[in-house]
Model the fold of this input.
Amino acid sequence: MPRNLLGIRHLAQDDINELISLAADFKLRIIEGKAVPELSKEVVGMLFFENSTRTRVSFEQAAHYLRMKTANFSAGSSSMSKGETLKDTILTLRYERLNGLVMRHRMSGSTALAARYFGGPVLNAGDGQHEHPTQALGDALTVLERKGQIKDLTVAIVGDVEHSRVARSNAWLFSKLGAEVRFVGPRTLIPAHPQLLPGEVYHDLRNGIEGADVIICLRLQKERMAQGLLSSISEYASMYQVNRETLRWANRECLVMHPGPLNRGIEVDDVAADGDHSVITTQIENGIFVRMASLYWVFTSEAKPSSPPELKVKTAKAKTPAKAKRTAAGAKKK
Ligand code: NCD
Done:
């Protein structure tokens, strides 16, 4: 079986440690101008069915540093706009002989489906509201660099938890690494069954971020929201914005994180986004190194992609009776 990176929930502790250590090592090498491994034979498809700036560019940069080639694909100009199913699109890319896929799609579980039909390796760049593993790995690296450890930290994930794949991947990752995870938000934006996720729920911002070492701010994912979940954006901001005043409730040394894109004035103000607590730009930079680590990790595993079935051309020629006889006779002689 090829190695995929589909989510954090089912990732073993050793794999998490390996990915983060690899990312830190690649970062050091790139900064010091040292050589990094080359995967120049691999062609990876970049399938972004949903918009992306950071994730897409950092996967491109990561592939570039590893000397990989990328095949770009945009949903609007593909045959999916002519009615092709996701399964047929993935199968097409497999027979185009791409060696791996980086994929983002609005449907939760879509990257697992792609892995099934493509044969792998597939890297999840965000599937619906399910998981965004490379974002979480980059966030963990960022916290480790600043705090030296994750164990025993308090990590508050604030905002639209319900629709956020970043919230889920980060909750799994930080809790696996020994942090206390809190979900903070209004009832309508907290998952209906929070007991299925590793964290405590808080509906009050002050209680939720009191003593927090890390605050992960989330954007309101309006594109995934049913109507009527919020009475008004300004009311939401007045209750849940992380800003100059509300930040005082957290730990003095607390880190402010945000996966981007930011909606300034809603989930964060400028002080939270750009002030001394903010590590948002480091998150962006570390995104490159964890994606290098992730590409390297899936492509260098012992498990190789299952190759497409053999072409039938030779078999068709062998169907002529004379040749078939000769082959059969030859086979007997041996
Ligand atoms: C996030 C995403 O797409 O899930 N962004 C990202 O990948 N950096 C968060 C968001 O869109 O709000």
About this structure: The chain has two domains: 13-131+286-301, 133-282. Residues 54-55, 126, 132, 135, 165-166, 219, 221, 259-260 surround N-carbamoyl-L-aspartate (CB under 6 Å). The longest helix spans residues 280-299.
